[in-house]
Amino acid sequence: MILFLRWVVGLASAIALVGFALVLTVGKGLELTYRSGAGAASLVRDLMTAGVPVLLLAMLVSVFLPQERTFLCVVAVLVAAAMAGCLTILATNPGEGSLYLGFFGLWALYFGMTIWGRG
C-alpha cells in the first residue's frame, strides 16, 4: 500500500508541478485582463502561488527519500500550514481549496504510513 501511495503522490506532484508552471506562465499574460479585486484572500492567494510549487517539489523529493525522517517531518509541518491556508480559501474558492486539501491529505496519509507504519 505504501508503495502505491508513493507512486500516486510522486506522479501527482510531478504533474501538478508541470501544470502549475504552465498556469503561471500562460496566466501571467492574462493577469491584468482578468484580475479580480478580491482583497482579503489575495495575501493568502499570493502565498499559495509562491509556496505551492516549493511545497510540491518538497513533497516529490520526500517520495524518493522516505528514509529521511527529519525531512519528512519538515515537509509535514509545511503541509499542515498549507492545509490551514486552504481552510481560509474554502469560503471564497471551495473547489480549489478542496482540491488542495484532498491532495495534501493524501500526502499526510503517505507520511503517517511511512513514519508510523515502520515499527
TrEMBL record:
Membrane-spanning ranges: 7-27, 47-65, 72-91, 97-116
Taxonomic superkingdom: Bacteria
Source organism of the structure: Paludibaculum fermentans
Protein name: Uncharacterized protein
Keyword list, A-Z: Membrane, Transmembrane, Transmembrane helix
